[in-house]
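Predict fold of DoxX protein; 158 aa.
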Amino acid sequence: MEALVTENRRNWDNRTTVFNRLCSLILIAVFIYTGLDKLLRWEASRNAFRNQTFPGELAEALAYAVPITELLITGLLLFSVSRWWGYLSSILLLTVFTTYVGLIWVGAFPRVPCNCAGIIDSLGWAEHFILNLFLIGLAVVGLYMFQSKKPKASASGF
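Predicted 3D structure, encoded as tokens:
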């Protein structure tokens, strides 16, 4: 019986590891794609940031910060030692993006700006919002599964 329990635990651990890696790979692909697209189409991306509803100085800073942050998050997600921070950073950045997309979608701004990457340009605001929610969900599930895989600290004493 103990061998069966051990085997089931090993199978669960393997599935958890595979799903965790899948979550991180999807997020890595999205952040590499969007970050590199902004850098490769630098002038268009910078102009799109300037077209946003926030002040010009902030737009200029974000034109540099957003793609660099996306690529840094990619780096964090690549390695198991930093993956927890990568998931947490993904959740934070995607929450900010999703909030902004949601505000645009409900008409909170006088005009409709966009600084989306490549294929995401073809999505409407509702689809973009749903995609971002899906990606946040992946990051949350990945973070949870990554946490559940860590060995628990045991209390010594008593």
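Residues 27-147 form one domain.
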